[in-house]
Amino acid sequence: LFLTVLKTDPMKSSEWMVDGIVLFALGLSGLFVVLLLPFFVARFIWRRSWRSGMLLAMALAVAAIQLFEYWKFVPVPDSGAPVHWPAFFTFLSLHVPLELFGSKAWAADVPRWLAITGGILALSVFGFFAWSPRREEAIPRCAMLLFALVLVLAATRRVRFDGPPADDFINVDRYVVLPKVLLLWILGSAAGIGTVRGRVAAALFTFRLVVTLPYFRFPALINLQWHRYCDDLRAGKEVTVPINPDWSVTFPARQSR
Q1: Backbone angles phi, psi at 248, to 5 degrees
Q2: Rounded to 10 degrees, what is the CA torsion of 119, 125, 126, 130?
Q3: CA torsion, points 201, 205, 207, 211, in degrees to nearest 10?
């Protein structure tokens, strides 16, 4: 999908076919087409060609399907309790804008009012870097902010953000990963050495990479000696196999014919 953004406009029927297959096949495989949609918008603005417009229309159609699926189907059952809005906005503040500034390390000790205030200020910072006097720069960055908001709203159909602990960055954080990537791309696109604002954006981008490095180191998983279960599996017996971290999977016995 990203290579399709960078390619020249399709001219031949074979090129249209390849781009169409990529957009629909890969676009329907996940939400990544929504993540890349701002770049299709930027491509159309820069090239100002009807071919780029057609590719943008195709990307929009596929992204609309993905967002509809994400919003409409298989929502988490509602507990029936009213939404606790302070907890809701505390969770989103710590997990989306503030996580880019290291909240994973200090989220447990922050009062709710401070987390919400910090989240609003952090979003204002991203809005500041999204703005640009150059239209071709401002529109894609503002589109990133918009799509980040859309993804967060869609995720509320899957999980009640006022339920999990605010410092739970393992089980629920996966629902807001893409909005964080979009915000980080705003910093990266605004980074540069020509202006003070560009230098600040570069510094914040670098800071984010530095504070993230420790989280790329994981302890080695336990060797559970899965080869010990092979003979029973081949014999068709019911087998319970332990998996990491402390779970297990049960394979039912083979049914006799």
Answers
A1: -150, 155
A2: 150
A3: 150
* Cβ atoms 47, 11 nearer than 8 A: no
Determine the Cα–Cα distance for residues 191 and 203; give it in Å rounded to an integer: 8
pLDDT in tens, 104-157: 888 888 898 999 999 999 999 888 888 877 777 787 788 888 888 888 887 777
Residue 28: helix, strand or coil by DSSP? coil
DSSP assignments along 72-140, one per residue:
HSSPPPP-SSPP-HHHHHHHHHHHTTGGGGTHHHHGGG--HHHHHHHHHHHHHHHHHHH--SSHHHHHH
Contact call for residues 183 and 96 (beta carbons, < 8 A) = yes
The Cα–Cα gap between 59 and 228 comes to 48
**Residue type (1 letter), 104:** K
Express each pLDDT in 9-66 by its tens digit. 888 888 889 888 888 888 888 777 887 888 888 888 888 889 899 999 999 999 888 8
Distance of alpha carbon 64 from alpha carbon 42, whole angstroms: 18
What type of residue sits at position 167? Answer: D
